[in-house]
Design goal:
Number of domains of chain A: 2
Number of strands of chain B: 11
Largest sheet of chain B: 11 strands, mixed
Shape of chain A: globular
Helix content of chain A: 25-40%
Distance between the termini of chain B: 51 Å
Order of helices and strands of chain A: EHEEHEEHEEHEEHHHEEEEHEE
Shape of chain B: elongated
Number of helices of chain A: 8
Strand order of the largest sheet of chain A: 7-2-8-1-13-12-14
Number of domains of chain B: 1
Number of strands of chain A: 15
CATH superfamily of chain B: Glutamate synthase, alpha subunit, C-terminal domain
CATH architecture of the largest domain in chain A: 4-Layer Sandwich
CATH topology of chain B: Pectate Lyase C-like
Radius of gyration of chain A: 18 Å
CATH class of chain B: Mainly Beta
Oligomer: heterodimer
Largest sheet of chain A: 7 strands, antiparallel
Amino acid sequence: MCGIVGLFCKTETHRHELGRLTEVMLAEMGDRGPDSAGFAVYDAGVPGRTRITVLAEGLKVDWGPVAAALEATLGAEVTVAAVHDHAVFSTDGDGRSARQWIIDNVAGATVLAQGNKIEMFKAVGYPDLVAERYDLASRTGTHALAHTRMATESAVTTNGSHPFSTGSDTCLVHNGSLSNHNRLRRQLAGHGESFQTENDSEVAAGYLAWRMRSGDSISEALEGALGDLDGFYTFAIGVADGFAILRDPIACKPAVVAETDHWVAMSSEYRAIARLPGALDAEVWEPEPARIYTWSLAA
Amino acid sequence: MSAAVRTFDLAESARRKLNQALHEAADGESFEVINPRGAHAVACGITADIDVVVRGSVGYYGAGMHQRGRVLIEGNASTGLAENIMSGEVRITGNATMSAGATGCGGLLVVGGNAGARCGISMKGVDIVVGGNVGHMSAFMAQAGNLVICGDAAADLGDSIYEAQIFVRGEVESLGADCVEKEMRPEHVETVAGLLAAAGEAAHGADPGDFRRYGSARRLYNFTIDDVDAAQAAGRAAGGDRR
């Protein structure tokens, strides 16, 4: 099954409690997939600085020397903060180069996300435990995506947990399964995308990252996805200044959206939305198959 | 409505407690459910002649496996509303998502708003009235009963339909394989009029004369391998080869 949730704060009103509300939604979806979970939070960021969230599960890494070596390579300042088995780097150097350097030089580590606004955390375990360990509740920001997984296409590992992100400030959570991900992974690798897992959903994230790096808007990238991705999917996608939803043309995988003056929320099931402030007065609807929905902070 | 109404607050008490009470209820009892908050399997498996009002939206399989009594849901419903309904009535004021009334064998399901994909899939005798629109693949493999749609129907309506009847007032995006438009004779207008009357306000005063009838061309459901060319042609004509 899997459960996905997304919360996009249109106004300031709930940004101070974005993490807490996202945790409430995620916990409500726990029985749709209790094997692993993860979340991505977008905040205002610091202009010109890139953050890189790294997972080093089961590794003993002394992050200080890693940051120093990265600093020497980039020729730009790098700081790092450890959060349990994750580390968040921050630099004013080139984010994409930093991401690739960490993938190439920190054996066994996985770069979860890279960008000006995004941080991402994931682990094996029940979603409320994952949320608690990485302190989702205290996080603030504009939008967040979270996922609770019931593995089907790859093993129950932290690396198989969602969200997935390969491009700057772009991430995706997926309920469903893709059937052409192996071929697509090889094609995207030929276009310079680097993948870190065997997971089908990472390929979808890589596809969107590739399209957007080539100049597509999120809508154009999703238009392409409708033609190029084969399988079942309900996606929620985060970008630096926005949030999008896409379901495949058959739309077997559930999705419900609710919107108020202050927020847009999507989830696999309404019961996650029912807990939000103002939910009873929200406009509630089901996204149509093969139709792209987007919301932007700029709008 | 003889006895006092018994209220269950799902924010306070377990849903199983509610369903257990509904299963043990005697004919004529009345129940109210508050704070359902999208919970699954609310008011499932009723077999007594009781009245249940749910004040809010329910999750999967709301009023599923229903017999005899009457359930009114004031809100929306997730997948499988009134799934496998045998008799009695299930009414909902808002929208229902996928597979509303799936496999229903009898009784009446009334959706005040829109129904999502596969409304009435494999229906076997239930009557369904939808005040708004229905999603794609509605009445897929529908075997018996009536599906009355006051709004529009999305793609592939009635794909591989058997002997159920579909009535649509608005636009049909496309018909599924082996589903065709049929003549609307006086007895059909009478059927629609009766169901609209039973639906009450949810039908928004629709005129039975405005509906068109759709049903099986009967080219597929006694399939033999000798008919494979005709079946494929029917599929193509109905747009069924798009997937």
